[in-house]
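User: Can you write out an input/output pair for a complex, sequences first and structure second?

Assistant: Here is one pair. Inputs:
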Amino acid sequence: MRKWLAAWFPKYNQDVVLLAVDLVGTFVFAVEGAMTAIRAELDLLGLLVLSFATALGGGVIRDVLIGAVPPNSIRDWRYGATAFAGGGAVFFFYQYVQRVPPGLIVTLDAAGLALFAMAGAGKALEYGIHPLLATLMAAVTGVGGGTVRDVLLAHVPLVLNSDVYASAALAGAIVMLLLLHIKIRRSIAMSCGGVVCFTLRMVAVWLHWSLPKVMVH
Amino acid sequence: MRKWLAAWFPKYNQDVVLLAVDLVGTFVFAVEGAMTAIRAELDLLGLLVLSFATALGGGVIRDVLIGAVPPNSIRDWRYGATAFAGGGAVFFFYQYVQRVPPGLIVTLDAAGLALFAMAGAGKALEYGIHPLLATLMAAVTGVGGGTVRDVLLAHVPLVLNSDVYASAALAGAIVMLLLLHIKIRRSIAMSCGGVVCFTLRMVAVWLHWSLPKVMVH
Amino acid sequence: MRKWLAAWFPKYNQDVVLLAVDLVGTFVFAVEGAMTAIRAELDLLGLLVLSFATALGGGVIRDVLIGAVPPNSIRDWRYGATAFAGGGAVFFFYQYVQRVPPGLIVTLDAAGLALFAMAGAGKALEYGIHPLLATLMAAVTGVGGGTVRDVLLAHVPLVLNSDVYASAALAGAIVMLLLLHIKIRRSIAMSCGGVVCFTLRMVAVWLHWSLPKVMVH
């Protein structure tokens, strides 16, 4: 057990929590991608492709845009392995997975969104991106994977249409950046931003919030 | 006023005209993206996403392809701010914007296409891309944003189907490259190429030109 | 003739066979892209765009992901020229091309897939990508172009749905990597992997193999 763990977490002694949390988010998003694949009647390979794309697409797009190539998920086998594990779990245990209550899935998804958004904003700042665009990168990291998945299925991506989702990522990133601006410690700023993103998303689902539209007559 | 301008144009004293023109093109394309979003009944966030994608998608794809990462529009907040300003203007003043005569929109769009195509070819050359592929990069810069927008809306992109649009960008870029080849000054070569692109596009709209097709029986 | 050849193969005296084979694969995929374009009733420009995207899209995505920018097909005019030659050949000689027996097209396509997959895995390894992800890059190189084509036409990409196609690329890449692992020479490992990929694809077409699915009740 210890040796197996050591293969996954060799030199990340300090950041081991961060990495573990990141992999959990990857797993959750991969599960969602795989469930979409099954509803679209794709075969095993299509399912694995959608798992990978949903879980890691957002981070890949962000890394390509901020110039961090090869992207983390291409450089580090653990991300891909986690995404495929999530997809495989759904493939083999679909009858159990589909009984997971929707409320739990929405909650895990909101947690994954918060995590990915904060990680995205933080990485963009590290690469010297302007704060205005770092908030954008937070949204790209959070919703990019789902967008790639929807484009592959020839759907209009949810992000263009749906209730408060990418907006929650943006709001969380703005809170994080404001806190960093007044010299709050990084770990606290990220936690606060993440809580804002998560809460906003959950409240929006609960109260059926949606963004304003222009009406065409 | 002067201080506010200085935030936008701090160190570009020489290239201030070029930058201003580039931002105007970005604004025009963002307005078009936002109008498409309203016709597709997207909410405010979807509208801003389409504004950004339409205005800056072509340049982002070009920069990623020629290795100029992070792309300009990710590195420099003024492009994103301009795109969102264009989108926001449409959101708040849609009733006025929809009264703009179509002829004016087509003209501004052709001007934006000419500008983006020339800028794209010029930047590709700066990065040491072969002239044959620099003309391709001109077309990618001009039509990439609209293509991303159409893919997000799950439409077949206009560029694959429409009358003379990307072809005008290609023709303008070829003229520019030929003039550069015979040692004409860069600013003149770009202006001539831009005029060719703009004129070709306007004449094509006016005379309903289209490209040949293979008929399938 | 010799001078014309020298423009295409100037400094690749050793790798001349590899390059020639690569260009043949590009030509075959471009022809397939162009035929799809004609069936979708696109005009000449749309046909050339689909030829380029189908033939070179997979390699471009791989190169962007592994950090080999600008991608080969943007840096080297011969790839683009070959893709456009393939598209142009279909445009001008469609009545002859459509009489090519489907079996020959499937065979050439499987050969192109095998070649692109091996080239993709090899290049990923050269750029220091982990073997697990190098096999993914093999699949991306093989099926990426067709996926871009299908997304542009607003179809669900074949790779998500079809019989054994990307799987053949993965299997071939795994064989190649295992052989490299036990210190077999590179050229032999690539040949064996390619043969596995090609054979698997052909047998799958012949016997109507497909991958398992989860049934939704």
